[in-house]
Amino acid sequence: MRARVAVVFFVVLLVGSLSAPVLGLAAGGDSSGAVAEPTGTETASIGAASSSASSLSAASSASSATLHRTTTLRQLPDRPGTYEAEFSFRVPDAVTELNVLLTPDATVQSARGFEGGDEKGTVRWTEMTDEPTLRVTLPANRTAVGRSAVAATGPSGSTASATSNASPATAATSRDGYSFVETGDWGIVQVPGGFSYRYTAPVALEETVQVDGPGATGGDIAVFGPVTEYERAVDGGSGTIRLVVPDAADLQEEPEAIFDELEAARNGLDVGSASDELFFVAAPTDADWGPRGVQYGRADAWVAADAELSDPGSAWLHEYVHVRQGYTRSSVGTTSETAWLVEGQADYHAATLALEHGLIDYADVREFLADGERSPYDTDVLAEPDSWSDDRTPYVKGRLVYGELDRQLRLATDGDRTLADVFRRLNAREEPVTEDALLAALEDAGGEDVRAAAEKYTRTKAVPEMWDRDGHQQAFDQPVAEFEYGIDADGIRVAGEPWGAWRHGSGENGSFGSVDEQGGERTIAVPADESVRIPATIANTGDRNGTDDATLQVNGDVVDYQQQRLEAGAATTANLSWTPTKLGTYDVRVGAEKLTAVVVGDSSVRVTDLTLEPETAAPGDPIVASATVEATGDGPGATLLEFRTAEGKTTIPVAVAADETATVEHELRFESPARYEVAVGQQSATVTVENRSRPPADLEEVPGFGAPAGIAALVALLAVAHVLSLRSRRP
């Protein structure tokens, strides 16, 4: 057992698929689905072990500060409807507690370094090994999905909800179809395994999910059985769309056509919360499915293999819209009054994307939206889920109301604002999307009349009338302002200092830390819990005035957002900010421009040498302290390096690449004769300050960090002087 010291604890909850809900779809026809969000993990691509493996979380820059978890899934052909999951951990010293969160229907087959399980299904790490493992079997067939809340204990022991989503659980309809299934020949299942941990210092999380045997996974959804996998690089090669087709599936559309539409949706839906990695599965249709598709996790989804693209409620596009709904994730979510928004929004944007791409025409959109005027949906109140007479109400009436609000917003602002702008604003929230928050966002964008329309159509039984073709052209065919966004690399500041002013290493990797492009990418190193300011460049490239939307995304999540009016042809800059709290590697984006931020802890840099020049100086003379530093792990290091003396400390930022050293210099001055100690990290050195006109007194005083022996000598001298002074005054 490792000896551990309990200091101030922090907790991270990673809510995984075992206890998590699903973002689902009932697209078209008479099927329906459910909406929710399974994971609270920070994610970044760190490379997969194979085509059937997926890495989910931020890669560490120092392996000793990384919590590793590998989830291996196995099909059990002799036990249809069941599958096996094995979790293997490597636990760093900073982690003091680790719990795996299982659902009640999970059965533990073996455990090494874990014990028991309480009534909530929590299996606890015993600390007897740094590499504990747990193997469980799980039921694969799921017919109902919903939301769950997991509490997180903060540093003071207070409790907060890791998911604030209070929306009611919505089954995959009472038609009793499956949302996940395993047949023995093939299966599409949830990747299980939520877990929580406590730590005493920042750690990175590195998670790999893999299928043992035929199949594939995107990290949140896994496929069992033989498959054919297609892949397309997007975004200049920085993003990937994967399409997995089981041998048991008969795909209706050509893979290239699906890629074309998903890529076009990725580029056309400017609402933030984009993901670099998409994983879509074409589901065999010989199962008793409830929904026509389910989006689950961050960017994984399955869609019925016979789903068509030329459908106003296309399951392919509907599920992609769910991927972009960052506000639905467990850390934000909706309330019951705004639960309708998630599916109504997905249906509406799927239809408008299909219209923009030429897959359908206005008549198709009109018919699709007008269904919301009819029974049984027309008398339901969207903000009151208990009033819904049909579980498809949020889809059918929701998309009509959402579309009417988009139309009124466009008219109220002469096309300057759309519901995509409100969508983006919701994605920037860190708190649940309440009814008040939604109404406020609509009012800010379009004024009181737009808010009043939203109140009318969501709080009452009122139903908007579907607009005609002329009304559509009037609202949706208006010219709009065109903007280009980028990053002013020279203006980036980390911990309040210009990034270019950070001390960087020299040698083969000496360009690390600069913001010059290196192989098409820019990289900065950021100490955890320090602010990062990214200046966003904005240019109105069109011929009309408009409102820009500068958005800072980190690993697809909107972390900051600003808007302002900008005249045609004008340009400006908006300062966006982010303060990372978890170690790892992150993609930071503004518009189409991207940089990589490596977030590291204080221990990522080690001081290996410290010299003072000169070693003897006169009072007030400059003394240069030179500290040599290196990265401690496999990746870069960065810290605010402290030069400490008895008179105080000075902080200098430094960043250094792996396998490289950097020299950081700092000028010191001491005004009084003495010997002074200077310390940087674990290194220290001493300088003697003396008057050059006479030899220094033979004192042992060394102002620094040891016992000030010279003080006693000084006190003794003052006492002697005082006695002599008294004697000289005697008559």
UniProtKB/TrEMBL annotation:
Residues 528-595 form the CARDB domain. Residues 148-172 have a biased composition (Low complexity). The chain crosses the membrane at residues 705-726. This is CARDB protein. The lineage of its organism: Archaea, Methanobacteriati, Methanobacteriota, Stenosarchaea group, Halobacteria. It comes from Halopiger aswanensis. Keywords: Membrane, Transmembrane, Transmembrane helix. Pfam families: CARDB. It comes from the Archaea. The keyword Transmembrane applies.
